[in-house]
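Supplementary Methods. Inverse-folding protocol.

Structures were first reduced to a discrete structure-token string of length 569. This string, shown here, constituted the complete conditioning input.
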């Protein structure tokens, strides 16, 4: 199992909001497009999301049943417990917003402050007459007569019962987290553990559909980002430049040979060969582990109703959308090579085709000439992705290059690397640390979460006539989330990772630019000498790291331009 897959499976258990959103967007909403997966497999992640959901349902069911039993036995005692829990949530939240609190101090506040708040709350209820006088043993406690309080049938049985209910409701979330961590121990390094069993054949079939779609080359995107899955665009990690070249220059590059027309498909293949040479036929220390494939994108908001095939020319009408399978009302995930070539040669189409270059950084192992181990390898986890768009139109060649980077998966999800080596006591301590003040909120929110879970639509999202009418009009089939993006850290963990992104971005840029200009000059006999000078300038000064900000430059040629941009928020 890939490291990224292990970490994402862990995230399914440790981040409830993320797990719920993954199930909603990737599993239950069958009409949604699936973002391509690079470096991980989404199928076991979905299975772990379902298993995590099942464990949370058990947790919330136990807490809800305990609350119902408490209300039936003594509603006043149960109300006092809920009052104490609510006051703890408010008080600890207010304190944490002003002063950082270590986990140990949180535990002290809960285990010491909770019973005190419970005692005060029960005293208040007793004072206003909602409780029988002395029903909770408060008068005896104040007088120090603990023997009378705790004797069988004594009035203190209700206070002790309320205290037990309070502690039990805190213990259930901690026990749930401990069981979760115990299960996650099977996801240690080099794990071969099978995915949790899916208890529904329909759900299992849907997971297999998602598994097939994740390795496609078509992405329908929702909202604004056509490069979903490569990172957020409005950050200093995103970079873009464009190059436009006149194809009808005054003279050819080599006298005596005619200049030839430029086919963007052949140009893409030349660039792919040049990029692949960075990987193929090289020893591992010198190889760059990149992957080049197609990235077909379109807006997810697709019109389904009848409309003219060509709005500018009266003629035949068309219904549906070329990227939507009308038999099952789901987006297609794979475009054939012939379809890709057709889109590349028609750059003004509503569906656009990019050449995608994906690279996962790895710290490769080092051995000496005798094969002795020197430095072990390590999963670095930084993903660098570039997108190249080529358009030949108006006797011009337009090239657009967009590069972005994803930080490694958040550190808290990499706890599976150390869990197998922890002792029983250490796992219990980790369960207490991770649960913390969330145990109080979980105890209160359990009935509401259980109610919300019962209202989830499941796989039968589109039913009835209303859904049928929606298919005939504009509907958003686009992907809204990327699992890898959701689990990524907020920033690079080290400055070296930023430098690695800079390195691989520059390597890909130079290779792309060189392949493009070489093809035009040597294969098409087009004079690109002026563009070479400008391209060299833009690449050599491509990234300037200044206080964590990436700054770009703009270069212009006399008969065209090379423009470079750095995306900022």
């Amino acid at each position: 199992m890939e490291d990224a897959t292990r970490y994402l499976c862990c995230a399914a258990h440790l981040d409830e909001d993320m797990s719920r959103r993954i199930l909603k967007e990737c599993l239950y909403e069958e009409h949604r497009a699936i973002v391509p997966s690079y470096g991980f497999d989404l199928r076991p992640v979905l299975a772990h999301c379902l298993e995590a959901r099942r464990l949370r349902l058990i947790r919330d069911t136990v807490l809800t049943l305990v609350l119902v039993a408490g209300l039936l036995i003594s509603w006043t005692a149960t109300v006092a417990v809920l009052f104490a829990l609510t006051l703890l949530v408010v008080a600890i939240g207010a304190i944490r917003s002003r002063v950082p609190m270590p986990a140990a101090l949180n535990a002290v506040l809960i285990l010491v402050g909770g019973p005190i708040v419970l005692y005060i709350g029960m005293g208040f209820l007793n004072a206003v007459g909602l409780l029988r006088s002395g029903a909770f043993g408060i008068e005896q406690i104040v007088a120090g007569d603990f023997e009378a309080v705790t004797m069988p049938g004594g009035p203190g049985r209700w206070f002790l019962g309320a205290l037990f209910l309070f502690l039990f409701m805190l213990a259930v979330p901690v026990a749930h987290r401990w069981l979760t961590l115990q299960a996650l121990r099977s996801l240690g390094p080099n794990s071969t553990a099978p995915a949790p069993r899916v208890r529904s054949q329909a759900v299992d079939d849907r997971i297999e559909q998602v598994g097939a779609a994740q390795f496609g080359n078509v992405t329908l995107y929702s909202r604004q980002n056509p490069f979903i899955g490569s990172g957020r665009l409005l950050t200093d990690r995103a970079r873009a430049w464009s190059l436009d070249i006149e194809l009808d220059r005054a003279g050819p590059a080599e006298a005596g040979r005619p200049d030839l027309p430029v086919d963007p498909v052949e140009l893409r293949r030349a660039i792919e060969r040049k990029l692949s040479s960075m990987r193929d036929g090289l020893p591992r220390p010198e190889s760059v582990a990149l992957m080049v494939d197609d990235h077909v994108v379109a807006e997810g908001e697709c019109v389904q109703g009848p409309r003219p095939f060509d709005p500018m020319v009266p003629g035949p009408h068309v219904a549906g959308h070329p990227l939507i399978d009308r038999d099952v009302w789901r987006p297609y995930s794979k475009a054939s090579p012939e379809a890709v070539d057709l889109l590349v040669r028609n750059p003004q189409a509503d569906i656009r085709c990019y050449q995608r270059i994906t690279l996962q950084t790895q710290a490769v192992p080092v051995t000496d000439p005798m094969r002795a181990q020197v430095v072990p390898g390590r999963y670095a986890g930084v993903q660098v992705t570039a997108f190249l768009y080529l358009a030949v139109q108006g006797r011009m060649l337009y090239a657009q290059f967009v590069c972005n980077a994803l930080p490694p998966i958040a550190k808290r999800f990499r706890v599976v690397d150390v869990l197998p080596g922890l002792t029983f006591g250490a796992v219990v301590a980790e369960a207490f640390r991770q649960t913390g003040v969330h145990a109080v909120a979980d105890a209160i929110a359990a009935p509401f979460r259980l109610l919300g879970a019962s209202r989830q639509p499941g796989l039968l999202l589109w039913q009835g006539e209303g859904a049928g009418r929606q298919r005939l009009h504009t509907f958003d089939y686009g992907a809204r989330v990327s699992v890898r993006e959701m689990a990524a850290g907020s920033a690079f963990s080290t400055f070296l990772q930023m430098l690695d992104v800079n390195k691989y971005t520059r390597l890909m840029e130079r290779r792309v630019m060189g392949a493009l200009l070489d093809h035009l000059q040597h294969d098409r006999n087009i004079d690109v000498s002026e563009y070479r000078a400008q391209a060299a300038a833009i690449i050599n000064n491509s990234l300037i790291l200044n206080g964590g900000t990436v700054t770009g430059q703009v270069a212009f040629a006399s008969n065209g331009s090379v423009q470079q941009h750095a995306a900022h928020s």
